[in-house]
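Weekly structure sync, notes
Attendees: PL (lead), two postdocs, one rotation student
Agenda item 3: pending single-chain targets
PL asked that the sequence for the first pending target be pasted directly into the notes so everyone works from the same version. It is reproduced below exactly as submitted, 389 residues in total.
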Amino acid sequence: MKRIIFNLLLNLLFMPFTASLLMAQDSVTVSGLGASIKGQLSAWGHYNPLNTMQIQTAKRYILQLNSHIKLGKERMFDIEGSANLNSMMDIRTFDSVSFDWNVTPYRLWARYSTKQSEVRVGLQKINFGSATLLRPLMWFDQLDPRDPQQLTNGVWGLLGRYYFLNNTNIWLWGLYGNKEQRPWEIGTTYRKIPEIGGRLQVPVFKGEAAITYHYRQADMTFFSTAPSFTKDIPENRFGFDAKFDMEVGLWCEASWISKSKNVGVLTNQQLINIGTDYTFGIGNGLNAVLEHLIFSSDETAFNFGNTFNFSAISVNYPLSIDDHINIISFFDWNNKTIYNFANWKHQFGKIETHIMLYFNPDKYHLPQQGNTGIQFAGKGIQIMLLYKH
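Predicted structure, written out during the meeting:
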């Protein structure tokens, strides 16, 4: 099924390119037809003396093609396709060298949109919520606040959104064929049963609030061979988030993940985040974000018998128009450990340079933060060049 969708969207993606070139040799926008090519190139070197592979170098190029057809004054059909091309070399000093490369689809979706609605199908990013550092509603993405590229895998599915004139909006989605384990998931998803969900977001006093729901069937055979652990356990997720802009920014984000079969302490997970941010009038403006996360996994819902607490703070300071400093720290209250990360960003026109230092425990216990998380275990330095066109 995904191969059929892939080929269909790929053909649709290049249709405006082909039509535009046939109709006007000097332009790629003709009578509502439009197309563009974008790209993001990154290269980085990483040194961590305690890692199995002490030195890592990598290159990544994300090629993005967009095309659209205007169907009227307020209606449009557009396509986005992008590929993730990356290579990595790992070096263990005076011992061994390994090399790996791959090409994977990054985004591939088609969308029909009007002034107040849109329907999008294909490989896409779906994310929502109010929190920024420790996110209970990180259901479908793997965004890491420490990653300068802000990369995340997409999900295959259908998403519809409608926006009311008073800023209320409704989301409905259906996902199918996604096999990778996502943040906060215990077990993988049973691929033969579609996932469905929705979200309602409404404006409230000086802010907005939303409720979110998602259903999937979990495959937990990885955890045990006992009869009670099966590959088709119905799972319901309920989410709530709210954010208010007052003298300071205030938000709350919570999630309850419940399985319909008793699988011991893995039956229910509760996550609650409270956060705030404020920009102090110091120098060029010092912005600070503070969040606290309570996570519990229990046999009985809301028992909070196996609780973990994490706090996080992020401080951003612009040294100049081209230079920014960002420091992020996480504190694990249960293990009494602290995770530190610092990034100096300098802008050279379209080129960004990032010098990143981290000082973390060797055993990594932070909540899931995506693919970059485990990379920052221990102590090390990473230098990255990032170019967008």
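Discussion points:
- The helical segments are 2-23.
- The mean pLDDT is 87.
Action: rotation student to compare against the earlier draft before next sync.
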